[in-house]
Specification:
Number of strands: 3
Structural class: mainly alpha
Order of helices and strands: HHHEEEHHHHHH
Shape: flat
Strand order of the largest sheet: 1-2-3
Number of helices: 9
Largest sheet: 3 strands, antiparallel
């Protein structure tokens, strides 16, 4: 995996004066590629750079006109990669025909919940799932995005409960110094392009 990252940084991703490029993959895919690096090598053999510094992408099969390689600038290559990343919260599974959300026959195909007894409107508004707000807590967002479960104890696997959120800077600094931790964030390192310009 480290060799793959080194190849991308040294040979594919361009040097840009300010911005550094970060390629990220979902955690399960990273683990799979770390276990089986042979899955990555065919792709790395297809992406190379030429002497002019342009990215050369070898096609799996030649096009009808005989084209076997695509040559583009590194920035255009990164734009094409970025276009493949779906927008956040975009559903990646699309249903058509009878399974479409507004299809007339969907109720006949999709299993329905068992019939619930009729509830009074006042009770329904308070207890029904479709009337409750759908906002997730920040702990659930961290679990969804970074796979960090802050609602489960790492030692005993019991359930943790969030009892407070400290938002005031002086209180945060006092708490961190009492625990022996640094109260200030480490200074940011300059982008690698600025270091090259200074030299």
């Amino acid at each position: 995996m480290a060799q793959t990252a080194a190849h991308l940084v040294n040979h594919v991703i361009p040097y840009v004066p300010v911005r550094q490029w970060v390629l990220s993959l979902p955690i399960p895919l990273r683990l799979l590629l770390a276990e089986k690096p042979k899955l990555v090598t065919p792709m790395l053999q297809r992406v190379q750079t030429n002497a002019a510094g342009q990215v050369v992408l070898k096609l799996k099969t030649p096009w009808r006109d005989g084209t076997t390689h695509l040559v583009m600038s590194p920035l255009a290559f990164m734009q094409r990669l970025a276009a493949l990343v779906p927008r956040p919260r975009l559903r990646l599974i699309r249903f058509h025909d009878v399974l479409a959300p507004n299809a007339e026959l969907r109720a006949l195909v999709v299993p329905q919940d068992p019939e619930a007894p009729e509830a009074k409107p006042a009770e329904c508004e308070a207890h029904c799932a479709h009337h409750r707000p759908v906002r997730l807590s920040w702990a659930k967002f961290l679990k969804r995005v970074f796979d960090l479960d802050l609602e489960q104890c790492p030692n005993c696997c019991g359930e943790l409960k969030i009892i407070a959120a400290i938002l005031k800077q002086p209180v945060i600094a006092k708490t961190l110094t009492h625990l022996g931790l640094r109260a200030r964030a480490p200074p940011r390192a300059p982008a690698r392009g600025q270091a090259l310009q200074a030299a």
